[in-house]
């Protein structure tokens, strides 16, 4: 394909993509295909000779499109959204045109420097504490990753290495220190609430450390509290284990619960280790356990104990921090170590784009930096520049900041606020409609950050669960909406997220009408 053919085909593709966007509301939300549908439609091997672009484009419509679930559909109210926008799409075209690995500043200075600037812009828009800014007092800063799962794994690596360095700092380098490092590693525990995203458990699995949960309950609105955390820390240490990391959540996946950051910060401030290995609440962190038994390694009594790294995962609901009425939630973040949210979920920035900030960039760099000769250059060696390869697990990286720059400039902070606020108001609208039909529904959790969860009424818990599950299956089979479910402490509920960019009040009304109609039919048969 020469440049003239590229112009022709690219313009044609843009027109076809625009036509696709206009056609989305008339399509079924979910792909109506069976597993393995695509293999019989395609050859067993790649063609030996190139095929014309017109043939490839035709196969998009005939073979690929039937297997696409339309995340931009106004009936897509499942999971949390992947919102996109035309400015972000255009930025992706430019990013693909520049096409580089961008691991060092010298690879493309604009890629690195724009990321630093845009992450500071975004931190200010969210009212994050000053410590997370690139020029902040603790030398923190932000970096773009592919997903919140990647961000959590990355900061957990930094947390592990920081903890291990602290508890073995009193030992000289050598075989004994290496042995003690491995003994401590064997006792490490990563924590999250029972409602934390599974990515924390997966990160612990990848790192080969234990994972445990802090229980939540209905009384706390399914949020983790400092008191529950304190109890869990004591339980673990009584077993000789060493908690080193905690994921706190702003907007859990199940029900959009917000953990009690203030009480968590207070608990960990009291838990912060002193030089003698005890905490201010009287427990012992890694010398002797809280039941009075000696730690097995024998060295911790003279070690400086490590602290628990706290990461705030706000993958979906973090976008709501652009609204001033939610910015009070960031008040405790200065006491924590890192924070992430996904602009690709609710902030009109195409996937993938996960923003993560750390209070101290040195924690990431110390854990992740390697300097083989082929990556060295005069700018990196002089410490005059940022090399974001040292802030992530992979080496290569995409030009993700470009689409954020396009979105922030095209919409402005006020435009993004209007978009997020509309999603929240639509959730409140659905909440009110469901609450107005107590003969059909009970609200499991009220509208939070554009998420509502509800159940079908019934005489017993088992009956409510069974009816709600049947309604859920019927709704998704309709092709008009796509919803997801959750199970919290044995309770089955249907989740409805009203944050997809295309959703308007008319779609919320149509969705409620469908839900009510099918619920009435279900109860009539009971």
Automatic annotation (TrEMBL):
Low complexity: compositionally biased ranges: 275-296
GO MF annotations, alphabetized: carboxy-lyase activity; pyridoxal phosphate binding
Q: Which residues form the signal peptide?
A: none
The UniProt entry, under InterPro entries, shows:
Aromatic_deC, PyrdxlP-dep_de-COase, PyrdxlP-dep_Trfase, PyrdxlP-dep_Trfase_major, PyrdxlP-dep_Trfase_small, Pyridoxal-P_BS
Name this protein carries in UniProt: Aromatic-L-amino-acid decarboxylase
Keyword Lyase appears in the UniProt entry: yes
Give the matching Pfam families: Pyridoxal_deC (PF00282)
Q: Where is this region: Disordered?
A: 273-296
PANTHER family documented for this protein: GROUP II PYRIDOXAL-5-PHOSPHATE DECARBOXYLASE (PTHR11999), MIP05841P (PTHR11999:SF70)
Q: Which family does it belong to?
A: Belongs to the group II decarboxylase family.
Q: Name one GO cellular component term.
A: cytoplasm
The Swiss-Prot or TrEMBL record lists the needed cofactor(s) as: pyridoxal 5'-phosphate
Q: Which GO terms describe its biological process?
A: amino acid metabolic process; carboxylic acid metabolic process
Keywords, alphabetical: Decarboxylase, Lyase, Pyridoxal phosphate
Q: PTM N6-(pyridoxal phosphate)lysine: at which residues?
A: 345
């Amino acid at each position: 394909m020469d440049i003239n053919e590229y112009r022709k085909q690219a313009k044609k593709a843009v027109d076809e993509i625009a036509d696709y966007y206009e056609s989305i509301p008339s399509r079924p939300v979910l792909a109506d295909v069976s597993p393995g549908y695509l293999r019989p439609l395609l050859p067993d091997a790649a063609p030996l000779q190139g095929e014309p672009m017109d043939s490839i484009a035709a196969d998009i419509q005939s073979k690929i499109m039937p297997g696409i679930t339309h995340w931009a559909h106004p009936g897509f109210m499942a999971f949390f959204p992947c919102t996109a926008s035309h400015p972000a799409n255009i930025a992706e075209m430019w990013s693909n045109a520049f096409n580089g690995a961008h691991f060092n500043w010298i690879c493309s200075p604009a890629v690195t420097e724009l990321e630093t600037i845009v992450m500071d812009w975004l931190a200010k828009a969210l009212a994050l504490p000053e410590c997370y800014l690139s020029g902040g007092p603790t030398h923190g800063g932000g970096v773009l990753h592919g997903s919140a799962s990647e961000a959590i794994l990355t900061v957990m690596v930094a947390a592990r290495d920081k903890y291990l360095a602290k508890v073995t700092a009193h030992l000289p380098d050598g075989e004994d220190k290496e042995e003690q490092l491995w003994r401590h590693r064997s006792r490490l525990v990563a924590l999250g609430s029972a409602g934390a995203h599974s990515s924390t458990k997966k990160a612990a699995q990848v790192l080969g450390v234990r994972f445990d949960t802090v229980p939540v309950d209905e009384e706390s609105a399914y949020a983790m509290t400092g008191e529950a955390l304190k109890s869990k820390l004591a339980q673990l240490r009584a077993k000789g284990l060493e908690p080193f990391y905690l994921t706190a959540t702003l907007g859990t996946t199940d029900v959009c619960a917000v953990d009690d950051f203030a009480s968590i910060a207070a608990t960990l401030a009291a838990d912060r280790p002193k030089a003698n290995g005890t905490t201010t609440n009287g427990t012992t962190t890694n010398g002797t356990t809280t039941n009075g038994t000696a730690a097995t390694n024998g060295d911790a009594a003279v070690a400086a104990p490590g602290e628990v790294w706290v990461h705030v995962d706000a993958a979906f609901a973090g976008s709501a921090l652009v609204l001033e009425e939610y910015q009070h939630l960031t008040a405790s973040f200065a006491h924590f170590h890192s924070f992430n949210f996904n602009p690709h979920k609710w902030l009109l920035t195409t996937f993938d784009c996960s923003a993560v900030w750390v209070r101290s960039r040195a924690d990431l760099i110390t854990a992740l930096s390697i300097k083989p000769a082929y990556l060295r250059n005069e700018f990196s060696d002089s410490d005059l520049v940022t090399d974001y390869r040292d802030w992530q697990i992979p080496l290569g990286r995409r030009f993700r900041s470009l689409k954020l720059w396009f979105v922030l400039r095209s919409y402005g902070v006020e435009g993004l606020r209007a978009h997020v606020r509309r999603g929240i108001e639509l959730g409140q609208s659905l909440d009110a409609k469901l609450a107005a039909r107590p003969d059909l529904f009970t609200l499991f959790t009220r509208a939070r950050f554009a998420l509502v969860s509800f159940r079908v009424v019934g005489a017993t818990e088992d009956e409510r669960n069974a009816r709600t599950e049947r309604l859920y299956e019927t709704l998704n089979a309709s092709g008009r909406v796509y919803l997801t479910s959750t199970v919290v402490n044995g309770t089955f509920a249907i989740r409805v997220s009203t944050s997809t960019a295309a959703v308007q009040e008319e779609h919320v009304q149509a969705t409620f009408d469908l839900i009510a109609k099918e619920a009435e039919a279900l109860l009539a048969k009971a």
